[in-house]
Amino acid sequence: MIRILLAEDMHMVRGALVALLSLEPDLEVVAEVAEGTAILPNAMTHRPDVAVLDIGLPGIDGLAAAGALSQQLPTCRTIMLTSHADSANIARAMLIGVSGFLPKDAPPARLADAIRRVHRGERVIDSEIVVAAFHHGPNPLTERERDVLTHVAKGSDVSDVAAKLYLAPGTVRNYLSAIMSKIGARNRVDAIRIARDRGWISA
Q1: What DSSP character marks residue 186?
Q2: How far apart are CA 188 and CA 173, in angstroms?
Q3: What is the DSSP letter of 139?
Q4: Which element (helix H / strand E) includes 77?
Q5: 27 three-class SS
Q6: Which of 11, 47, 88, 118 is most buried by its number of CB atoms within 10 A?
């Protein structure tokens, strides 16, 4: 039985993945979390064989959590799930020893197969993600700019974002102006569309 830790912040997506993976006779989801900060504590408690992590998690992102896992629980292999990927994320994933990179909309059978393969010691990297990532180039947004735009994309207004990130509202507006200028967006909605299409923020 392959023991799995699943990290995905969208409740419905996480629930669907747990249900689908549980149908596989040789796979068992032993822990499911919604935040990056919960990955390592749960991994140390449940000792999964494979961690399936969304890149765009609140708290700390999936790649940062994967790096911590590789140091604290090296027997656990990691698969990253992403709507898109930029070249910097792929390079970072390779450096920390991530075993798999799959699109979030991959069929369940493909994810199950990838889990089995990385558990055997193979590396599974989706070719379409790699081609798209290097076509669009590296993410021009700083980590804080990504945080701000991600919260706005989820429907938070300036005041909400400021409260969540412990910033002044004026600072949040400055970040948004800088984002729009960097990526050539006409407005915030356009900035969200461009950043999502290019994989610079999670969908």
Answers
A1: S
A2: 10
A3: -
A4: strand 77-82
A5: strand
A6: 118
